[in-house]
Automatic annotation (TrEMBL):
Domain PEP-utilising enzyme C-terminal: 556-907
EC number: 2.7.9.1
Native source species: Sphaerotilus microaerophilus
Record domain Pyruvate phosphate dikinase AMP/ATP-binding: where: 22-59, 67-390
InterPro entries: ATP_grasp_subdomain_1 (IPR013815), PEP-util_enz_mobile_dom (IPR008279), PEP_util_AS (IPR018274), PEP_util_C (IPR000121), PEP_util_CS (IPR023151), Phosphohistidine_dom_sf (IPR036637), PPDK_AMP/ATP-bd (IPR002192), Pyruvate_phosphate_dikinase (IPR010121)
PROSITE patterns in alphabetical order: PEP_ENZYMES_2, PEP_ENZYMES_PHOS_SITE
Family per record: Belongs to the PEP-utilizing enzyme family.
Protein name in the entry: Pyruvate, phosphate dikinase
Domain of life: Bacteria
Keyword match ATP-binding: yes
Cofactor: Mg(2+)
Alphabetically ordered keywords of this record: ATP-binding, Kinase, Magnesium, Metal-binding, Nucleotide-binding, Pyruvate, Transferase
């Protein structure tokens, strides 16, 4: 027997379970699990992701031959449970057909509802439901979705947006009405006729009337939609492999639009924005699911508490709230209790915050979906820590619940309270995704991309302002600072996607009138144009005129608890790459336990120093260079003192000068003229020196310890600055701990003379001052040769710090500065799975790290091993460094919390 492709679920028989996500997709697996928990779910079946793969590889006919019999059996089972027949005109069973991949991809793939309707069945539905308007509305929705998704009737111009909506608008104008809901059964019947003619005239085919033809068309279209443009973009942004495929869920339709005892909604077992342990969500009476998501009508809140909070934000008085926007808790108390019981069961069962969809059909509750809810970084942290405190999950799970990169959301800036005082709020919407954003208005997603990329500006900060967003807007949303929509609730597309991206979003700001054609946004009598500045507070829903300064976030509460927990489990230490006392202070506040890399050259560019550096470069002999270096010494010493103070008691790794000297001289005419004037030397001399410094491969040229080998006086000055600074700070009662690092070493014969200068200088300074500090002299491992001979280098060096940027560059033969022109293509084609400069190439470069670590330890068991390349802040790479047995990683200050958590996850994972 070949493996089944169809898995049933319902109150009678359920084949699947939550653990079968790979095969059934998230939605299908959880529908099955809900049935197992005796939660009311409309019966149906899931066609597996293996069928999707078979379809992609073998095509339509082969697939149909494989699944035909099983699908027919599945439909028969649904018929039996619902007591209706598929294709029975008198009382038709209608089906929904939805995609459902392993990972949730909200709104990215296609859905078809009300499948099974045709000209005969619509009459049967009307007779059975006693609601003619409902029957025709269901039919026109079906044709609209099917015409678009399966038959491929697409807009012919940008203005048209949706050809079916154009037809609806024309009829509304003709009938003199504004809202779809004002159209009656006869109007909707008209629409059905017009839709069918539109399909016939545009596509030269008729709308299929045979329910089975409809069903096969829909199933194949969902499989096709796995490869549509927006699904591809989403996969790219979220690292979802193409090979996963989607499952298809075929399920009995239930209706939330059968009158006032019917409703449909979306709920979260905890607050997806803040993480608060509060059941919440939105619903609409007499509506279909997509009405809630599309944000066309203002949804009502499920709980009374939520409703009161909403009214306060929306400036709706209590009387109006109760009369027009009552909560489900008030409106349908019995059903609310049932929903509450279901949400409790589901959260307790999955031990995670659930995102639920439900429909109430004529007083009966049906659950349509449950999944682990997407949430902001802040909610992720709070939910993990509260579930831990509530005993729902253990410490290990709590650590693994937070995606390290999402901590970025919490580290994101908020508005400067001082600046906010003068800010003028112009409108208020829903606090859909927290954070502060300030930028220039654009009205189209493609323009958001162009502006932010600099095609029409120069990397501008933009706020994408839309009536509502759709999956087509994804790229534009991802580059915007923030998103503002005039329509839509907390569960609208914009809100859900923005939260997923950790991006500030205010949705449903009803007072804002958006005119994308005129590129204006109007509130009352005031109009803003494209390019005008506005600011958004995604945590309160406020929209402000103009540009408002932002400041760093607070790092206490649940964040602090999570970090403390991470520190208890992690083995790797986390240091920071910091060149200034300010950076060092930030890093320490974020939990760094030392500086893993101070790039001393960064200090050389500031103010008058660059002049002394240039003097040194221009000097004709050693004496000249020493004169210039003497000017640099006090400045450099001052810098180091600042670092030692900020890192009192913790190691500070100071790297000797690394970049090629030509980086410090101007290459353009005007710059050279100015330098000549400033230094009072002929411009010809400068030009000559710049030419001498020119290199074909500067990254492989005269840089790193090669500078110190040829100009030992540079090393001497830097070492003197380090030790004088350390003694000065020690005299203040603090504990400086310098680690002097020699860059770009490839042989112990390069290391030894440089280390000798450092040690000799230390002894000299100690003798002059009559005091000492503890220090180490070590090296970077950033050339492949250094890794290969790490035992010989390790016999002399007290520590290794892997410079994985250069090590990657030299091992892979990819220029760090030029690889951008081809690497993305490499990754797209799967030649390398990831950009090796972002996440360490474990198979190749990683071997050198392991080898060098092992060789280093073989000659010096207590050798200190760290990483200071960009990879030190990448969670996947941190997992690798943990396994390789290193002692610490070092990363930019704002990645320190991310690295601490990633290190803990590596330890417990
Ligand atoms: C490295 O090469 O990984 C490193 C940290 O040094 P830099 O990036 O300064 O070359
Ligand atoms: Mg380097």
């Amino acid at each position: 027997m070949p493996a089944p492709y169809v898995y049933r679920f319902g109150s009678q028989r359920t084949d699947g379970a939550a653990a079968m996500k790979n095969l059934l997709g998230g939605k299908g697996a959880n529908l099955a699990e809900m049935c197992r928990l005796a939660i009311p779910v409309p019966p149906g079946f899931t066609i597996s992701t293996e069928a999707c793969t078979a379809y992609t590889q073998q095509g339509r006919d082969a697939l149909l031959a494989m699944i035909d019999a099983e699908v027919r059996e599945g439909v028969a089972a649904v018929e039996a449970e619902m007591g209706k027949r598929f294709g029975n005109a008198a009382d038709p069973l209608l089906l929904s057909v939805r995609s459902g991949a392993r990972a949730s991809m909200p709104g990215m793939m296609d859905t078809i509802l009300n499948l099974g309707l045709n000209d005969e069945a619509v009459a049967g539905l009307a007779a059975r439901s006693g609601n003619e308007r409902f029957a025709w509305d269901s039919y026109r929705r079906f044709i609209q979705m099917y015409g678009d998704v399966v038959m491929g009737l697409k807009p012919t111009s940008k203005e048209e947006h949706d050809p079916f909506e154009v037809v609806i608008d024309a009829l509304k104008t003709q009938r003199g009405v504004k809202l779809d809901t004002e159209l009656d059964a006869a109007d909707l019947q008209q629409l059905v006729q017009r839709f069918k003619s539109l399909i016939h005239s545009r596509l030269g085919r008729d709308f299929p009337t045979d329910p089975w033809e409809q069903l096969w068309g829909a199933v194949l279209a969902v499989f096709e939609s796995w490869n549509n443009e927006r699904a591809r973009v989403y996969r790219e942004l979220n690292d979802i492999p193409e090979s996963w495929g989607t499952a298809v869920n075929v399920q009995a339709m239930v209706f939330g639009n059968l009158g006032d005892s019917s409703a449909t909604g979306v709920a979260f077992t905890r607050d997806a924005g803040t993480g608060e342990d509060l059941f919440n969500g939105e619903f609409l009476v007499n509506a279909q699911g997509e009405d809630v998501v599309a944000g066309i009508r203002t949804p009502q809140q499920i709980t009374l508490e939520g409703s009161r909070r909403w009214a306060e934000l929306a400036l709706v008085g209590e009387d109006e709230r109760r009369a027009t926007y009552p909560s489900l808790e008030e409106l349908m108390p019995g059903l609310y209790q049932e929903l509450l019981a279901a949400e409790t069961t589901l959260e307790n069962h999955f031990h995670d915050m659930q995102d639920l969809e439900f429909t109430i059909q004529e007083g009966k509750l049906w659950m349509l979906q449950t999944r682990n809810g997407k949430r902001t970084g802040a909610a992720m942290v709070r939910i993990a820590m509260e579930m831990l405190a509530q005993g729902m999950i253990d410490e290990r799970t709590a650590l693994l619940r937070v995606t390290p990169d999402r901590l970025n959301d919490l580290l994101h800036p908020v508005f400067d309270t001082q600046a906010l005082k003068d800010a003028v709020p112009i409108a208020r919407g829903l606090p859909a995704s927290p954070g502060a954003a300030t930028g220039q208005i654009v009205f189209h997603a493609d323009e958001a991309e162009a502006w932010s990329k600099g095609e029409k500006g120069s990397g501008k900060a933009v706020i994408l302002v839309r009536q509502e967003t759709s999956p087509e807007d994804l790229r534009g949303m991802s580059v915007a600072q923030g998103i503002l929509t005039a329509r839509g609730g907390m569960t609208s597309h914009a809100a859900v996607v923005a939260r997923g991206m950790g991006k500030c979003c205010v949705s449903g700001a009803g007072a804002v009138h958006v005119d994308p054609k005129a590129r204006t946004m109007t509130v009352g009598s005031v109009t803003w144009h494209e390019g005008d500045w506005i600011s958004l507070n995604g945590s309160t829903g406020e929209v402000f005129d103009g540009r408002i300064a932002t400041k760093d976030a607070e790092l206490s509460g649940d964040f602090g608890k999570l970090m403390a927990l991470a520190d208890r489990y992690k083995r790797l230490d986390v240091r920071a790459n910091a060149d200034t006392p300010t950076d060092a202070t930030v890093a320490r506040r974020l939990g760094a336990t030392g500086i893993g890399l101070c790039r001393t050259e960064h200090m050389f560019f500031q103010g008058e120093r660059i002049q002394a550096v240039r003097e040194m470069i221009l000097a004709d002999d050693e004496a000249g260079r020493r004169r210039a270096l003497a000017k640099l010494l006090p400045m450099q010493r001052g810098d180091f003192e600042g670092l030692f103070r900020a890192m009192d008691g913790l190691p500070v790794t100071i790297r000797l000068l690394d970049p090629p000297l030509h980086e410090f001289v101007p290459h353009d005419d005007a710059g050279q003229q100015a330098m000549a004037q400033q230094m009072r030397v002929p411009v010809a001399k400068i030009k000559r020196r710049v030419e001498e410094l020119h290199e074909f491969n500067p990254m492989l040229g005269h840089r790193g310890c090669r500078l110190g080998i040829t100009y030992p006086e540079i090393t001497e000055m830097q070492a003197r600055a380090v030790f004088e600074a350390a003694l000065n700070v020690q005299a203040e009662g603090l504990k400086p701990f310098p680690e002097v690092m020699i860059p770009l070493v490839g042989s112990v014969r390069e290391f030894n003379p440089q280390a000798a200068i450092v040690r000799k200088t230390a002894e000299a300074v100690f003798a002059e001052r009559g005091a000492k500090v503890h220090y180490l002299v070590g090296t970077m491992i950033e050339t492949p040769r250094a890794a290969l001979v790490a035992d010989s280098i390790g016999s002399q060096a007290e520590f290794f710090s892997f410079g994985t940027n250069d090590l990657t560059q030299m091992t892979m033969g990819f220029s760090r500065d030029d690889a951008g022109s081809f690497l993305p293509e490499y990754v797209k084609k799967g030649i390398y799975e990831q950009d090796p400069f972002r996440s360490i190439d474990q198979k190749g470069v990683g071997q050198l790290v392991e080898l060098a670590a092992q060789k280093g330890r073989s000659v010096r068991p207590d050798i200190e091993l760290g990483v200071c390349g960009e990879h030190g802040g990448d969670p996947a790479s941190i997992g690798f460094f943990h396994k390789a047995g290193l002692d610490y990683v070092s990363c930019s200050p704002f990645r320190v919390p991310i690295a601490r958590l990633a290190a803990a996850q590596a330890a417990v994972g």
